Amino acid sequence: MKTLSEDVSTREIIKYLNKLENRISNIENRLRIFSGEESTIETPGSENSNETLAKEKNEDQLELRIGQFWLAKVGIVVLIIGFAFLLTLPYENFPLGIPSLIGFLLAGSLALLSRYGKNNFPYICSYLTGGAFVLLYFATLRLHFFSLTSIFGNIFFEIILLLIISAITLAYSIKKRSVYFSALSLTFAFATAIVSDNSFFLFFVTAFLSALVIYLKIKFQWQNLVIYGIVLAFFTHLLWFLNNPVIGKTFQLVSSPDINVLFLLLYASIFLFGNYMGEKTSEDYHTIISNALSIVFSYGLFLLITFIQYSSVIGFYHLTASIIFLMFSVLYWTKFKSKYSTFILAMTGYLALSVAIIIQFELPNFFIWLCWQSLLVLSTSVWFRSRFIVTANFIIYLLIIIAYLVYEGKINAVSISYGVVALLSARILNWKKDKLELKTEYMRNFYLLIALLIIPYALYNVLPPEFVGLSWLAVAIIYYALNIILKNKKYRWMALLTLLLTVVYVFILGISSSSSTYKIVSFLILGIVLILLSIIYSRNKLKAEK
What we know:
Elements: H1 4-34, H2 46-87, H3 98-116, H4 122-141, H5 155-176, H6 179-196, H7 199-220, H8 223-241, H9 260-276, H10 285-308, H11 314-336, H12 340-360, H13 365-384, H14 387-408, H15 416-431, H16 441-462, H17 465-486, H18 489-512, H19 516-545
């Protein structure tokens, strides 16, 4: 029988164990909450409660992001703009260097704040550092601009100081591996080129900075910096073309020196070559976008300026542009098998070549050269395996013929080129049809139909009536020869149709013609040819039956 003391001790032990179990349960619940595990016990409305908590959490994160990042960005931008307005005040009763000195002090203050607060407020301090660089550049700019008199008698020293500040900003960006500070340093350097108001200095600085952008892109893989550099480079050249209105000059179009357009091609070549360099074997969307921007901006501005400053060498400039863009289209195709960049480059090169032809030759002679150019376009587009270029070239070829007929009103001797080009184009499409991602059968037939109609019509307009029938007969024989050489029955049908047309023409003209010599010669030759062809058809039939 248990004693009283034993019974009490047993109850105390059980009570202690119960308390210990409760504590362990509380610890487990707390650990489950902090680890993000969901309770296995579902209570009514728990699902709605979880959704509400998630929504509140997202709202809190958005609010925190706006409050921590965006308010800092906007606030510092507003602060810097306010300081800039402060520096542009006239300060009539103060020495010349006071506004710049105030700017230097403000820039130093922002730099000190960012340095001592970077541990607690890193994002705000980063923006403050950027603001300090902006104020430093603006205060230096104030030494020469925004006042009636300047501290420097020559703008040369001002440009040197601005370039030094741009270089310091670039060095800081490389040290911090910051693409944003690199973009800021590029902005400073391009702005320096603009305010220099010297054409060749602006061109060479823009070319150097374009190469610098490519270097930073290759070294740090800053793809977006290339797009920003492209915009800055061509915007800078555009401002020069508009006579630098941002520095207070009268708005007008500037076209001298003439070779400024070659610098546009240089900028584009630098960006295109930069995207071509590297170990990549395929183009990404950054490459496509940056290439498209550099091509459109460069040749668009090139085209505008050359028409404003029209001179005898403009055709040569456009021919140079054509060679450069077509060369890069070949490079991008051979390395990347690029569809988009190659298409844009090739079409721009063809456009530049067309403009060069139009400038070089008089109307309507350039239509013939454009016709032969379409053959070059087709040949390269087949090699590029670009159905877009093939289709576009076919449409442009038709438009060239229509434009020529509308302007000239008739087909003459040189118009036979349209027929010859149509025959060659059909041959190229048939020769390389397996390389194209496009059903070209109808397109080839249409090319052959154009040749079938244009060549006889051109001969009809060019030759005396007595020789038209004989010339058509020669064309039919040529078609038969092509059928034998190329093993293509379409040429046999073309020969047969041309021959029937010849028979009709000879009979009509033979009856109405007063020349006995023509009647005898044309009927004899035509009769002999028809008999020979009949014999050939008969022999072919016998061979087929055997």
